[in-house]
Amino acid sequence: MHNYFTLVKNEINPSLSADVPKVEVLEQELAWLKEHLSQLESPVVFCHNDLLCKNIIYDSTKGHVRFIDYEYAGYNYQAFDIGNHFNEFAGVNEVDYCLYPARETQLQWLHYYLQAQRGVAVTPREVERLYVQVNKFALASHFFWALWALIQNQYSTIDFDFLRYAVIRFNQYFKVKRQVSALEMPK
To answer: Which residue ranges does UniProt annotate as crossing the membrane (predicted)?
Structure first.
């Protein structure tokens, strides 16, 4: 994310739209994210980093799930990958954050995820801990893809309104930041 920010700061004029936060604001938010998220102790694992629904293939006849499109894959925080996956429920072309999974849906999903990962029963506290991590890292996902979209707006030849997408992601970041930052780790 830092590399994307550096590129935006040095080569792209984010103020090409009044709806895009100024570079100084972006720099402050990036520092806040780094400080805030580093305290969460989310493990670093191999992540897909772009697990939107179109990148998940389910073969119902065999009961197999396959992931495709690994161009952004690499080591990252576990909670980032899951938070990003939940953010992607909102879509890309027609973004609707009403589709972001509700708390109960997330808790159920995270319960199954942890059980599959560990191969043993998990406690509600462990699930709640991951829930807090995931929702806080979902903020980083918004910020990451907003920066990415600013870069794409400058360089991509794809027919897509990247600037609009960047604004949508920044807006959602700021909309949920206070509520998400208030989440506390279970005791």
So the answer is: none
